[in-house]
Amino acid sequence: MNKKYVVLTVFLLALLIFIACKKSNNDEETIIKGKATLYVDESIFPIVEDQQAVFETQYDAKLTLKAKSETEIINSLLNDSVKIAVIPRKLSAQELKVFSSKKIFPKETIFASDAVVFIANKAINDSLISLLDIIKFMKGENVNGIKGLVFDNPNSSTVRLLSERAGIKVTPQKNIFSFATNLEVVKYVSENQGLIGVVGVDWLYQPPLDMQSFIDKTRIMSVKADEKFGFVYPSQENIGNGKYPLARDLYIINCQGYSGLGMGFASFLGGERGQRIILKSGLVPVRYPSRNIVVRNKILNDNN
């Protein structure tokens, strides 16, 4: 073969390899660049969606959010089908043990607090409810004013939290209903009196447009867990100071094991901008964003 052709062939191969490597490096995921999929607990989807929108405008990153029940998310993390998730609790000791057996060490980052709330049809006269009455009803007792409980999903974090408080596993049965989403719960309660819906408060503070008309026909209830605080409304202040009995912490779980978007998004959530988004949403940030106050030594007269 002519030496010129050999040299030309080698040069072209080297050039193709260089271009391929350069393209590979450009596509490589970093903490602020690339693509990643996150599973998000359906009860807290709105706040994570807000964070995603701002994160993507600030960085060359694309986050695909998928709303799932808490049980689905945990199972997906354990079988390695997803590496990043946002859920309203820490991983349990048993779950961490499974990860450890696979040489996987999840990073758990708390970034906010929200609450599970009870809602009722706006036509009700009394917007106060006792957590003890809810637990009695879950155990099969008749409770005045409660015709039924409506949950978002039998595998959801809201069901898990109420099950822990009641000391029994909540399952669909007579007068205890489960749908698939918080939207369906709100819609059903708005159309039926005497039912108590159990939803994540974020859906009520930041509802999608198609949900607002149903929310307008419902009422958030104040909850009493003990005599110390009495009936407590799930306001931002009451969630933050621990008075509201069904408050919970939100975590991003990162099982990537390298410096990827899981780490970058977690840093964003816990950073200044992410915490401002939390504060504005009505939820409680883990740290309150700083405020810059400018003190003037001289007052300017605009009329001069």
UniProtKB/TrEMBL annotation:
Transmembrane segment boundaries: none
Superkingdom, natural source: Bacteria
InterPro entries in alphabetical order: PBP_domain (IPR024370), Phosphate_ABC_transporter (IPR050811)
Keywords, ordered alphabetically: Signal
Segments forming a coiled coil: none
PANTHER family linked to this entry: PERIPLASMIC PHOSPHATE BINDING COMPONENT OF PHOSPHATE ABC TRANSPORTER, PHOSPHATE-BINDING PROTEIN PSTS
Protein name stated in the entry: Substrate-binding domain-containing protein
Organism for this UniProt entry: Flavobacterium capsici
Organism classification: Bacteria, Pseudomonadati, Bacteroidota, Flavobacteriia, Flavobacteriales
